[in-house]
Amino acid sequence: MILEVAVLKVKPHLTREFEEAFKEAEILLPLNSGYNSHELMRCIECPSQYILLVSWETVRDHEIGFRESEHYKKWSKLLHHFYDPFPTVNHYDGVEEYNEELVMKLMELSHTERN
Fold first, then answer.
1. Model confidence at 94, in pLDDT bands (50, 70, 90)?
2. Phi and psi based region of residue 34 (left: phi greater than 0; alpha: psi -120 to 50; beta: remaining)
3. Could you tell me the residue range of the domain that residue 38 belongs to?
4. What is the CATH number of the domain that holds 101?
5. Rounded Cα distance, 70 and 73, in Å
6. Sheet hosting strand 35-42, strand order edge to edge
């Protein structure tokens, strides 16, 4: 599972309209393969900045599955005109998965050394 993190800088005079349009657009996300969940949060210090967190099964589900879909065309039409500048988007993977694997290996090694 990966987390898409999009920093959305909305034109300050259009935040209310953006939030209304997002309510309409967000129903498109669950229609895509690999979608798990999403959350939109507004910045306290800069109220025209938002962060969109979307959980996908894979980066491909977002980059190919969603972005090359008809749903994305509708998403773009509803939301892209609110941004200035266009959002930065990155994908993140859980660190705990790697730590868990390392801990298991260390435990096995420790057990082997004791025997």
1. confident
2. left
3. 2-114
4. 3.30.70.100
5. 5
6. 35-42, 49-56, 2-9, 88-93
Domain count, the chain: 1
Give the pLDDT score at 3. 97
Pairing mode, strands 49-56 and 88-93:
unpaired
Distances (CA, A) of 72 to 48, 68, 76: 23, 7, 6
Who wins on pLDDT, 111 or 25? 25
Q: What is the pLDDT of residues 40-65, one digit of tens each?
A: 999 999 999 999 999 999 999 999 99
pTM of the complete model = 0.82
3-state SS class at 41: strand
Residue with tokens 């090694």: 109
Looking at the DSSP bridge assignments, the partners of residue 91 are: 4
pLDDT tier, 95 (very low <50, low <70, confident <90, very high otherwise): confident
Tell me the helix, strand and coil percentages in the chain, rounded to 5.
Answer: 55, 30, 20
* CA nearest neighbour of 29 among 63, 66, 4: 66
